[in-house]
Amino acid sequence: PGGWSQSRYQRAAMEAWHQNAGDAAAATADLAERVGADVVVVAGDVRATGMIAAQLPARWQDVLVRTDAGSRDPGADDTLMDDITVQTVAEVADRRIATALDRFGVQEDVGAGLDAVVAALQRNQVDTMLIVDDASADGELWVGPDPTEIATDPAQLAGMSVADPQKVRADAALLRALIGTDADVTVLAPEEAPELTDGVGAVLRYVDAGTPGRGDG
Prior knowledge:
Blueprint: H1 6-35, E1 40-43, H2 46-55, H3 58-61, E2 64-67, H4 79-106, H5 114-122, E3 126-132, E4 140-143, E5 150-151, H6 154-158, E6 166-169, H7 170-180, E7 184-188, E8 200-204
Parallel strand pairs: 1-2, 3-7
Antiparallel strand pairs: 3-8, 4-5, 4-6
């Protein structure tokens, strides 16, 4: 429509697209970095998402999912974006669970069961804890002021010079210890780990001669 000026108008429009995409990519990368995102979903016009993707740092391009869902056109289905996002997150979660179970399996019997997990937490040894989601679980553990002061028996904490051990819910004690030792947690459905001893296990940061195994105290 610009006549002789059409090419100039088109260049200006493309420059605006690139600048806007760059701004969107920078904001996306900043937010993804701050929340530690496992996946980034970019939706909309194919050209626009391509420009955004191209300007993302390589780290986020590796976890990027592009979709043309999310159109703002009148009558467009606004549930498609939600559906794709939920499906993408579920796939990431499934891969994370599979990876954690594989790493746990490589350890064979080491780190299996509540006693072994508690002992590993005492030694700041847990990288990722596996726990079965069981609403009926009512176990309890003993804790002291520090995250690694966790035990199945108050006498263990007395040996750590904890003057006033407190009895708390096992799941709360475990999560507190994980946060305090900068460890991760992977929550499993019962059918995903039917043979997990006590419904809990740990992928360990390291294994040494003092690492307890299944059935060890």
